[in-house]
Amino acid sequence: xxxxxxxxxxxxxxxxxxxxxxxxxxxxxxxxxxxxxxxxxxxxxxxxxxxxxxxxxxxxxxxxxxxxxxxxxxxxxxxxxxxxxxxxxxxxxxxxxxxxxxxxxxxxxxxxxxxxxxxxxxxxxxxxxxxxxxxxxxxxxxxxxxxxxxxxxxxxxxxxxxxxxxxxxxxxxxxxxxxxxxxxxxxxxxxxxxxxxxxxxxxxxxxxx
Length: 209
Prior knowledge:
Number of helices: 5
Largest sheet: 6 strands, antiparallel
Strand content: 25-35%
Order of helices and strands: HEEHEHEEHEEEHEEEE
Helix content: 10-25%
Shape: globular
Structural class: alpha+beta
């Protein structure tokens, strides 16, 4: 694999940031294969792909209930984290688009927002009974910070303030899906927002631990 990378035959993934042990975000350009993505995640980073879901972008009336698409359809989505209603949201997620599409997904770093919410004891309430054990999220005890405007609402002023910070948060990186096959990222650190997209564009979401 190293020889292929040196000869330009295998597009090397772009590792955008590191924590102490693992990469927090990696972009895989087109020309990479799905097998290459899986190998990098499982063998290079030492993580486990536990589940793969397949979706298509849909208009509002055809979208899943309580999904962002049921509110925003094919338009711009707000920043959110994946698996936000679960007791233990996956720490890492990979988004994979096997077909190029004229759309992009933007990522922001939640750490500054978490620090703000943590210091002021922000409280969020879950508005759908997906898992009753997390009807409320109180920071700093209930980490990670879960962001999803469809299923969570701020309860106190601290939570409202933390929510208001999201649109103005600095962009960490952007995946342009015409040039990008996949993005693997730390779901506890980054929130993401997909831009407008064509109907029926397929995507895979890998749950990684």
